[in-house]
Amino acid sequence: MLFFLKKLVPLPSGSGILLCILLLSLFSSSQFSQNAPPVYAKVLCINSPEGCECKFPEKEQSIRVFHGEAVILEDPFTKSETSKIRRSKDSCIYPRTNLKPLAYQHTFRPMQTSLDHSPKPLERFLSQEDLERLSEFQPTSLGAYYPTYYHLALEEAFPGTEVAAYSPSGKEIGRASATFLEQVRWEGSGIAKDGKKYHFAGEGKYELYDLEWGWGAGYNYQVFPYRTLAVSFKDLCEKIGTKISSCNKSKVIGTLAYIPKIKEKKIKMQNGKYHDGYFCLNDTGSPLYIRDDRVDMFVGVHGGGSPYQPQELSRNLFLDAGIHPLYPSDWKLYSSEKERFWCPKEKLPRNPFSPSESECKLDYHAQAPEKGMEMRIFFRKDGSLVRCRT
To answer: Cα(197)–Cα(273) distance, rounded to whole angstroms?
Structure first.
């Protein structure tokens, strides 16, 4: 490039070199901006149920953006106080201090894994007698549940500065990137580049494990892709009511569940078979996020449907089939970056949860009702609950 410019523009050596360097710099920046992966950001808009103003460039018009929305920074390297953001087809100007850029490993492709994500056969979880009589069991509808996805974190997707990982006793059990360990805290478990499998043990500590995928919510239950659902067992007991005496987690973990919409979608799995719609409720999550009629669907190392990443990094088989998860922007009121408004429980009628729009306007019940899916559980003729085995 430098030789070409000198041949094209014969100038005295000093000024010629300076000009060439400048032109080369401009050329490189242009090429970089054209070829660089998009920079995603999270919109920050606290205590604003009506959203925040985002102005159109060189126009007096504006649109409203909401907290948690995923946008693309069209000028990620600007040093100005505002930034141009793109949301779907709209581009507008928003205060840069109210944007949180989010990093990801753009070369990572979770759907290209060689790990088998086929759902374990029901024979793995149910007795032969239960399998034969499944159609005879009395189904009980729990109403609509609203899904999100969770997965095993992989260090190859979240590289960075290595830090020590400590066990609950304070012993160093390995080293991995800080961003990966943060993902393990969020997702529950993850696999490091050296093959070690970490499980978050709480309070910034970790445990190593040697299972095919990971632990569930206790009582020796494990999680399996496209079979495990995480729910609030406390809320599940409230929905079941008097059908189980002194209901608690130990009595309902492993509950066999059925989601008709999953079967109706005819979702082809890795083994070439369509998903049968059956799941095991053998995991849970933070009560800040998994409550009432929320359900987290485990998808192995496939993508978790994050709106803050390109599609190829977020894909999983359910998402590809049109099972859309809740996004942070499906809540319209946040009191802090992560503290969101939830429809008051007293407004939610027992079994099923179905608040009217007038009762609850600011969370997913009114904002994304189409994402809800009916979920059923089963009782035997003797009144006992059908549960998956460990």
So the answer is: 29
Single-letter code of the amino acid located at 124? R
Question: What whole-number distance in Å separates Cα of residue 94 and Cα of residue 356?
Answer: 34
pTM to 2 decimal places: 0.86
Q: Is the pLDDT of residue 57 over 60?
A: yes
Contacts for 340-345: CB closer than 8 Å, 24+ residues apart: 341/49, 342/291, 342/292, 343/292, 345/292
**Contact predicate 353/127, CB 8 Å:** no
Q: What are the DSSP E strand ranges found in 104-250?
A: 138-150, 153-154, 162-166, 172-177, 189-191, 197-202, 205-208, 214-215, 222-223, 228-230
Sorted by sequence, the CB contacts under 8 Å of residue 302 that are 6+ apart come out as 110, 111, 113, 117, 151, 225, 315, 316, 317
List the end-to-end C-alpha distance of the chain, in Å, as a whole number: 65
Question: What is the spatial distance between Cα 318 and Cα 333, in angstroms, rounded to a whole number?
Answer: 28
Q: Could you report the per-residue pLDDT of 109-156, keeping only the tens digit for each?
A: 889 988 999 999 999 999 999 999 999 999 999 999 999 999 999 998
The two structure tokens encoding residue 121: 């056969």
What is the average pLDDT score of the chain?
88
**Which tokens go with 288?**
């800040």
232: alpha, beta or left? (left if phi > 0; alpha if psi -120 to 50)? beta
Q: Count the helices and strands in the chain (H runs, E runs).
A: 10, 21
Q: Which amino acid is at 210?
A: D
Nearest-angstrom CA–CA distance, 229 and 329: 23
- The rounded radius of gyration (Å) of the Cα atoms in the chain is 25
pLDDT at residue number 358:
61
Total residues belonging to the chain? 390
